[in-house]
Every structure is written in C-alpha cells, then in structure tokens.
Fold this sequence. Notes:
Elements: H1 2-11, H2 18-31, H3 34-61, E1 64-68, H4 82-87, E2 97-101, H5 102-105
Antiparallel strand pairs: 1-2
Amino acid sequence: MAWSQIKGYAASNVSWNLTRITDLVNEKINLMGATEWANLCTKVKEIEADYCKSDRVVDMITETFVIHVGDDDSEPNDDKSSSEMATSSTNTASSSRFHVTHDDLMEGVLPLLFFIF
C-alpha cells in the first residue's frame, strides 16, 4: 500500500531517468508523515482481520486435505473409502497417501505485528 503511493508519486514526476526515479522514491518516503504511515498500518490491520475471518471459514470447509500420489483417475477404484484405501494392497510406495492439515501448511508462519510509536 505504501509502495503504491510511492510509485504513484514517482510516476507523476517521470523523466525516466533512474537516478531521478530513485530520488523521487526517497523524496516521497521522506514526505510521508506519521499520520500517513499510521493510516496505512490501520488499513493493513483491517485487511489482515478480514483474512483471519475468511481463513476460519476455509479451515472449516477444508479441515483435511488428502493427496494421493501416483493414483490414476482412470482406475475404477474411485468408489473406495479412505479406510479401504488404507488397507488396499495397491497402496504401495508409488501410491502413497499424505494428509496435509491446516497446521502443517502454517508451520513457521506468524501473524503480522505492527508497532506504532
């Protein structure tokens, strides 16, 4: 969001000289006051809160995600249940099953934290 404001400022003063564009970027960064940065941070927090709300809905819909590696869609075993697949002799190394949960996907991901001084 801040970058879009900086790009807009630079674009309105374009002379297509890399040195001039660099100067304009630095100039806009220096012109942005505490209020402008605070407004941007508030907007980012609102967007993040919206993502968190929608993320819960996605979690409820897709609690478990199963990937069948090596399975061929044309095989007639599409009617097998998960338990049948687990005990099936065709479930070899070439057709392994992996269960990926939300926690697995979010490993190492931390929420954004903003500090306004």
